[in-house]
Structures are given as C-alpha cells and as structure tokens.
Design goal:
Length: 346
C-alpha cells in the first residue's frame, strides 16, 4: 500500500517511521508547511516532499493517507484524501466538532473507502491485558468502570493550538479525555447517557475546560465514573478500572502496569496480583514515551491494512471516532443545560 502522511510534527514523524518499517507499505509522500521537517520525517524513503498537502493528490499513486495535522485541518485533509479515493487513518480526535466528524464519516461511506481513527491506547499492553481478563470472565460479570486521564496542564503541550478551544474543539475532553471515552466505548459498549460538569477555573483558557467529570451509562447498561483533567499535579497518568462481581482489573499508564484482584464470589477471600512491564519502563527511561507510541502505531498500521481488507480488528473505525466526540459534546451540553443528555442527542 502506497501511503502519504500529512503533517510531519512529532506524531507525523513517528507515523512515517512505521510506514517505512512496514514490509507491506511504502511511504510515497510527506506534506508539511515546514518542508525541512517533512524531508526529515520521510528520511530513508522515496517519499515526495511538499509544503502543500493538495499537491499529494495531484499525482497518481497514493492508496492511503495518514492525517497528523493540527485538528482544525483534519476535515479538509480527510475530505481531500477521500475525494482522491484514498483510505484514511486520522489522528484523534477525528475533528474539532461533531458536525465536522459526521461529514468526514459520511464522505468515506459514500466513497466506499476505509476510515480509521488513531486511538492508540487500545494497543497499550496494559489495556490488552484488561480486555483479555474481561473476555475470559476473569472478574465475572462487568458491573461498572472507573476511568481517569490527566496531566498537569497547558505547559505540557508542544504547541499552543493543542489547548485552544476554537482550534482543538475543547479542552481536556478533546485531549486526554477523548482517549478515555474511546476506551469506555471499546470495553463496555457505546455511551448512551451522560451527566457531566466541565469547569475551567484553573487555567482559564476560553473555550477549553481544564476539568471534566461525568457519570455515564453504556448501551450494555454499564455505569461509568469518568474524569479528564489538566490539573493532575502529579503528572501524566491514565487508568481504566473494570469492576465485576468476582473482582477488578486496572490498566494503568504511566508507568505501564496492571492490578488484578479476584474472588470466588462477593465477600470471599481475595487474590491480588500485579503485572509489570519492566522492559517498557526501562525503554521509556532511555528513549522516551515515543518508543511506546511508535510500537502502538506499528500495530495500528498492521490493523489498518487488515481493516482495508475487510477484517475485523481492534483499530477504531470512523464510527468510533465520531462517537468519542459525541460523548465530549454530551458533557459540554450537560454542563450548559444542567441535565442528563441521552445519545443520540434528544
């Protein structure tokens, strides 16, 4: 598959590396307003370099496009790729508004091309272990989830556009929170009910909440306790906890680990075990978080190729990308209207 990457920042460069290293893909084009950055991202390949992404589609020979641009450019880039007949893997969130996400999804469906969204947390080893435990019935019947994602705020961002609501679509819900809503949908079924509160009293960035808290319910009837925050003063961390009638399982990052507690029945003696990933912890100490992200991107690319071929894979599809933003919008609406929001929107 001949692949073009649009956007050659930190994430785009990592995406380029996975394309170059995959035996089933060829990096044929890289576009970025910074031509030198695009050239560096495509090093080791035969990729054409362009400052204007539209030039990528002026020439034949692109089968798929990976969109890694700032969020407010996602829609125009995705639509251009779809119009050119390309399959699309777009970085999260799919776009900066629900309406924009739906336009992308509709265009892909009309054109008959594959649309996938880069929710790479699905590929974290700790999350994989959690889903394996759930699928095997290791904690019995799923009762509820506790979900948290956060970091210490605006100083953690590489670029200002990443926390500016008019560009990014919102605050922490559209940042780390979008990963967490996707994990809820992935593990427990689509969220259908949201009662939330979003606040912005710490960083005071117009249009960008720094905390979002919610109670949710999924289509499978699973309750969810949810928080996304930019005021986690202890630093970046996420966790997903699943509670069943015979125990609980936690997937945590960073560092990467699992906690599993099991019992024969409610009230019985409990067994506690940890699953650590020392190779990941050491590798990240030496090579940074990018080393883990690169590996998840490689798995996503493998599954993207399978998805194009019609296989069912863990990779998030267009519908998942739309719904994650739909949940974020439900939190915002619940905050404004002081009521529970039902999805699809009532």
């Amino acid at each position: 598959m001949r692949v073009a990457v649009l956007g050659a920042g930190v994430i785009g460069k990592l995406r380029c590396t996975t394309v170059v290293n995959n035996l089933k893909t060829e990096l044929v084009a890289v576009a970025d307003v910074d031509e030198e950055r695009a050239r560096a991202a495509g090093a080791g390949s035969v990729a054409r370099v362009s400052r204007d992404y539209r030039e990528v589609f002026d020439r034949a020979g692109v089968d798929a496009t990976i969109v890694c641009s700032p969020i407010h450019l996602h829609e125009e880039m995705c639509l251009a790729a779809i119009e050119a007949g390309c399959h699309v893997l777009c970085e999260k969130p799919l776009s900066n508004s629900l309406e924009s996400c739906r336009r992308i999804e509709d265009a892909a469906a009309s054109a008959g091309v594959t649309l996938a969204v880069g929710f790479n947390h699905r590929y974290y080893p700790s999350v994989k272990y959690l889903t394996d435990v759930l699928d095997s019935g290791g904690i019995g019947e799923l009762d509820h989830l506790r979900v948290f994602g956060g970091h210490d705020g605006t100083g953690s961002f590489r670029e200002e556009w990443m926390f500016q609501g008019p560009i990014s679509g919102g605050g922490t819900m559209m940042d780390v929170g979008i990963h967490m809503t996707d994990l809820v949908n992935y593990v427990a079924g689509e969220v259908v009910e949201v009662s939330g509160i979003a606040t912005g009293g710490v960083w005071k960035v117009e249009g960008s909440e720094d905390n979002a808290m919610a109670l949710m319910r999924t289509q499978r009837g699973v309750p969810v306790i949810f928080q996304a925050t930019w005021t986690e003063w202890k630093g970046y961390k996420i966790f997903l906890e699943a509670y069943g009638d015979r125990g609980m399982i936690r997937a945590h990052y960073a560092p990467m680990f699992n906690l599993l507690i099991t019992q024969e029945k409610a009230g019985a003696r409990r067994k506690r075990s940890f699953k650590f990933y020392p190779e990941i912890i050491v590798r990240e100490k030496l090579r940074g978080w990018e080393s883990t992200t690169r590996r998840t991107f490689a798995e996503e690319l493998d599954d993207f190729l399978k998805m194009v071929g019609g296989e069912r894979v863990p990779l998030a599809d267009g519908r998942a990308g739309v719904h994650a933003v739909e949940v974020a919008e439900a939190v915002y609406r619940s905050t404004r209207e002081h009521r529970t929001i039902n999805l699809p929107f009532d």
